[in-house]
Design brief:
The protein has 381 residues and is mostly helical. Helix content is 70%, strand content 0%. The protein is built from 12 helices and no strands.
């Protein structure tokens, strides 16, 4: 919540595409902005690929084909490319798709919670501290991935109506709603199913089957699949807009930001992002994708919280439709928690993240070198 409040304040200041990239650029300069923007885009790619890879595990509840080797990757690739096509044809169509899946996934969750409350056994709630706290930090790091999403709300600000009003509401509201739903659903699941920790890949479906029968298990498996498909829809909407924002400021070829003549979408950025996401989903494991996505998104959090502190000092009179109460302590606390989470990451993943960042700077350096003696209009993708 500390970080979401920082996104809300900065989102009320700027209306360009890019979110954390714009915030870091305005606070710390173009180089820092590009580094944050690149990692933000990479985080979205990895997160999108991870969720796409997980869809088949829920669909396996309905047919064993989805448990076969290759099914996970095939389903992921189809989802990624399909939603890429939807967003290629316009932001309104993409936004309507996100809204539809958001509503569709809430219905089974609310039914699960409302009915399950009457079947909770208080004896199933047992303290977990006796098992030790050695892995607590890494557990918090992993749980952060489930709460990601609010940081993408400012990505398409430049294509939205009144983003300075909409982004603060969306950033804070989405995190609050997600947290409340998670707490309610988890409380019911633990209360009705003592073996939840060993339930495999479909824990909510197994928990629902205990008090709603086979129909309940089917409903929750369907809800899980719809939820993950909806997450794919949201990533497909926001992720390419960040790449186009980097191109708008000429860190990357400007054709990535050129709107499609008919659909007015960053079509080249959508195609490249979709293609690379499909490749990541095909070649990397779910666990690897989750770790990399979470590590990359933490860099956004640190930069955004730091930008609040810096911009309040350097631009105190800049218009802000939303100001964080006790803003400086909140922003500094957000930085501290984010940096603590980085300590939970294994060295190989830190090295890989550093390599990805270096690759981004190599790309922008290569582009600038290639266009040093050319007019901007002469360079195309």
């Amino acid at each position: 919540m500390l970080v979401a409040l920082c996104y809300a304040e900065l989102g009320s200041m700027f209306r360009q595409n890019g979110g954390p990239y714009v915030y870091a650029k305005e606070a710390f300069g173009p180089a820092a902005g590009f580094g944050v923007g690149w990692l933000s885009w990479v985080s979205s790619v990895f997160s999108w690929a991870a969720v796409a890879n997980a869809v088949s595990s829920s669909l396996a509840y309905f047919h064993p084909w989805f448990d076969r080797a290759g099914a996970e990757k095939s389903v992921a690739a189809l989802l990624i490319l399909g939603f890429g096509l939807v967003n290629y044809r316009g932001i309104k169509l993409g936004a309507w798709t996100v809204d539809f899946f958001t509503l569709a996934k809430l219905v089974p969750l609310f039914l699960f919670a409302a009915i399950g409350l009457f079947f909770i056994a208080p004896a199933n709630y047992r303290p977990f501290w006796h098992a030790g706290t050695g892995s607590f930090g890494y557990a918090v790091f992993l749980s952060l991935w489930t709460l990601q999403g609010f940081e993408v709300t400012p990505f398409p600000s430049g294509e939205s109506l009144e983003p300075q009003k909409a982004v603060p509401i969306a950033a804070v509201g989405s995190l609050v709603c997600a947290t409340l739903i998670y707490v309610l659903v988890q409380s019911v699941a633990v209360g009705v199913y003592p073996g939840l920790a060993n339930a495999g890949t479909k824990p909510l479906a197994d928990a629902a089957a205990r008090f709603m029968g086979a129909a309940g298990g089917t409903l929750m498996a369907l809800g899980a699949a719809v939820s993950m498909v909806g997450s794919n829809a949201g990533d497909a909407l926001g992720c390419p807009r960040l790449l186009s924002a980097l191109a708008q400021d000429r860190h990357l070829p400007p054709c990535l930001a050129t709107p499609h003549p008919r659909f007015n979408t960053p079509s080249a950025a959508i195609l490249i992002t979709g293609g690379l996401t499909a490749a990541a989903a095909w070649f990397l494991s779910f666990d690897c994708l989750v770790d990399l996505a979470t590590l990359a998104v933490i860099s956004q959090y640190v930069a955004t919280c730091s930008a609040v502190v810096w911009l309040r000092r350097r631009r105190p009179d800049a218009p802000r439709l939303f100001r964080i109460p006790a803003g400086l302590p909140v922003a500094l606390a957000g930085c501290a928690v984010s940096l603590w989470l980085v300590r939970q990451v294994k060295l190989p993943e830190l090295l890989l993240a550093g390599l990805v960042l270096a690759l981004g700077f190599a790309c922008t350096a290569g582009f600038r070198l290639a266009t040093r003696n050319k007019k901007p209009a002469t360079f195309s993708c």
